[in-house]
Amino acid sequence: EKARSLYQIELIILNEEWLIAGKYAVWWAKMTGIPCLHLAHSTALTQYYMVHSLFLSNKIAIFGERDAENLYDLGLEKNRLRITGNPAWDVYPFLKENAAAVKNMVYEKYRLNPDLPLILCGSTWDSHGSAKFRKEDNPYVASINLFVATYKKLADSEVRANFLIKDRSANQVYGEQVFDEAIAKLGITRDSLFYAWDDTESLIVSAAVVISIASNLSIEAMIAGTPAIDLSGSSPVFEADSGILSVNHDPAQLANGCE
Q1: Residue 195 is inside which H or E element, if any?
Q2: How far is CA 142 from CA 119, 126, 249, 259, in A?
């Protein structure tokens, strides 16, 4: 109410409306008659469920028809949806045209071995919404452990590559600690194992393969022309003919997929 008294608020724009800040903002806007625009922050690869199935914003801007199908299943009216594409991905044609220079920048910045290909692993998001936080069965911690174990499998098989775990910026406060703990547990050193949370697009263009878990990173990899592996396991989120390899959460299977 203080903000409303100080400013003429005519529209609220959010990229999620399920966590505390976003949900309260939308509820407050609905109570005061201020319209809300929800800008999707990703393409929905699975059905919306539980808390994510509630959309209160007046309009929802989505990337494409695939998102629309999920929202129609929830009963959302067609006139509430606007298909806009994702302007953030428009950078890929430029990066692909300058792939050699982009790769040189990436390899120099992260001190990668220029004679080895790059295997890029994208972590999942830690919502901090579970009592399992920082436990072995926490999905985020499990993803880092899986990637590090896969690196060891490849190294033991004498498959040499730059193996980089690209974390999410929201995890960076503690992410590298999780990474170091996973390394220490398996008794390995960093050598060709790297950790980062920046330069997503440049890393994807520079990689030989991109690995992620039901993530839009696989879509970005397709745009960039980079092979992709999805770790959705027995419930794949991509069609069989999409060109994306789907494997289980198993270091041996993932290592075989990389090879």
Answers
A1: strand 193-196
A2: 18, 11, 9, 22
| Single-letter code of the amino acid located at 210 | V
Tokens matching residue 165? 């775990």
Tell me whether residue 46 is exposed, middle or buried, using C-beta atoms within 10 angstroms of its C-beta: 0 to 12, 13 to 18, 19 or more: exposed
Tell me the two tokens of residue 158: 């004498």
Label the pairing between strands 245-246 and 193-196. unpaired
Cα separation, 60 vs 257, whole angstroms: 37
What's the CA dihedral at 82, 87, 90, 91 to 10 degrees?
-160
Are 83 and 63 in contact by the 8 Å Cβ rule? The answer is yes
For tokens 């390394």, the residue is 183
Q: Which residues contact 248 (CB under 8 A, 6 or more apart)?
A: 231, 233, 234
Give the closest residue to 221 by CA, choosing from 240, 197, 196, 238: 238
Least confident of 119-123, 169-173, 215-219: 169-173
Q: Taking Cα atoms as reference points, which of 94, 65, 90, 89 lies closest to residue 78? A: 65
Q: Please tell me the pTM assigned to this model.
A: 0.86
d(CA 111, CA 66): 38
pLDDT tens for each residue of 13-44 = 998 888 788 888 899 998 889 999 999 888 88
Tokens of 74: 């929830």
Q: How far, in Å, CA of 241 to CA of 259, rounded?
A: 20
Residue 128 amino acid letter? H
* 77-98 pLDDT, tens digit each: 899 999 999 988 999 999 999 9
Residue 143 banded pLDDT, cuts 50, 70, 90: confident
